[in-house]
């Protein structure tokens, strides 16, 4: 199983995805690199707002930036979701085990009631 990220990193990641504009930026970047102005235009937001949202996405590890001259281009980091997926998978495994125990208990109780 993949290593689970430290809690502070997970906090930054979940915070980064908690905003619809940032999720929209990730959706756009999943189709390829884009400049700040392209991202701002596609979401209908001002450049300063786009820059702030992108800073949160960079901090969360979801995007990387590269500057060439005066243009800063952002790309999605495909491995960024791995830590979140590992965290969710662990919780899913624990919950499924609890449901399995509940199912066994209910089956046992039903067997006792019919005897």
Annotation keywords:
elongated, 115 residues, alpha+beta, 3-stranded antiparallel β-sheet, Arc Repressor Mutant, subunit A, 12% strand, 5 helices
Could you explain how this protein is built, in words?
This is Transcriptional regulator, ArsR family. Residues 2-96 form the HTH arsR-type domain. One of its GO terms (molecular function) is DNA-binding transcription factor activity. InterPro entries: ArsR-like_HTH, HTH_ArsR_DNA-bd_dom, WH-like_DNA-bd_sf, WH_DNA-bd_sf. It comes from Variovorax paradoxus B4. By secondary structure, this protein is an alpha+beta fold. It has one domain: Orthogonal Bundle (Arc Repressor Mutant, subunit A). It is 66% helix and 12% strand. The protein has five helices and three strands, in the order H-H-E-H-H-E-E-H. The protein has helices at residues 7-17, 20-29, 36-43, 47-59, 81-114, and strands at 34-35, 63-68, 71-76. It has a three-stranded antiparallel beta sheet. The longest helix is centred in the C-terminal third of the chain and has 34 residues, at 81-114. It is elongated, with a radius of gyration of 21 Å. The model has no long low-confidence stretch (mean pLDDT 90).
CATH class wording: Mainly Alpha
Rg over C-alpha atoms, rounded to the nearest angstrom: 21 Å
How many domains? The number is 1
Order of helices and strands: HHEHHEEH
GO molecular function, one term: DNA-binding transcription factor activity
Protein name: Transcriptional regulator, ArsR family
Domain HTH arsR-type: 2-96
Organism: Variovorax paradoxus B4
């Amino acid at each position: 199983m993949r290593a689970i990220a430290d809690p502070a990193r997970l906090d930054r990641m979940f915070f980064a995805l908690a905003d619809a504009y940032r999720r929209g930026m990730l959706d756009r970047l999943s189709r390829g690199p884009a400049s700040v102005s392209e991202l701002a235009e596609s979401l209908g937001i001002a450049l300063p707002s786009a820059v702030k949202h992108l800073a949160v996405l960079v901090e969360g590890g979801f995007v990387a930036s590269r500057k060439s001259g005066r243009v800063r281009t952002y790309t999605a980091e495909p491995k960024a979701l791995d830590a979140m997926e590992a965290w969710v998978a662990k919780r899913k495994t624990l919950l499924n085990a609890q449901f399995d125990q509940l199912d066994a208990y209910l089956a046992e109780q039903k067997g006792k009631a019919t005897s």
